[in-house]
Amino acid sequence: MLPNYCRFVLARHKRFVPYFRRMHILLIEDEIKTIQSLRQGLEEQNWKVDTATDGLSGWRLASENSYEVIVSDIIMPGISGLELCRRLRDKGIKTPFLLLSALGHTDDKVAGLEAGADDYLSKPFEFREFIARVKALARRPVEAFKPENILKFADLEQDLDSKTVHRSERAIPLTPREFSLLEFFMRNPGRVLSKTEIAEKVWDVDFDTGTNVIEVYVNYLRNKVDKGFDTKLIHTLFGQGYVLRQEK
Q1: With a threshold of 0.70, does the pTM exceed it?
Q2: Residue 78 sits in a domain of what CATH number?
């Protein structure tokens, strides 16, 4: 059973779908029935659809891929749609952004637009209005996004092309493994990274609980990145993992 506010009949739309280059959309929504319904409708319109059910997963997809349109609910686990939009704009990603929300007051819409969103659609809505908004955003000329080769967090900057790292213009020499570890932190600011996840993503191996190699490398990296600075960036959360955040 489809949610009432989507109200679309797929059979009705099929005969009106013209052929065009397959567009790529990112859909971020924590309500499973809603995301399934919207995805089905978009695919009937010949769109390629990536989905995420929380803000942090949406952030990773949007940071690493190119989309014609990003659609996101506002209230989600992890980070909100507003925060997600702000992060993307701060990173220089200009992909058209449509916010969905049951919060339909003027102040809510203003907050969404000020966060960098291009459009705002209040729930409940009909699918034909939703698809019209998406298509209108997709027609806007936007410079294609390419995954950034320079990652920035606070006063720390990592250049993936030149393989260099600077903090407050101070060069920080890193080994190849330390560089890869830092990149993983830089792509996931504010998110707690477990030893298991670091092992899988940075070392590409299953984590051996009998070794302290990850702890050792995190300490190596922390000593190089944080030494001599009042604000510390790499933090240990005992029993949980590590996190990149600003904290004195």
Answers
A1: no
A2: 3.40.50.2300
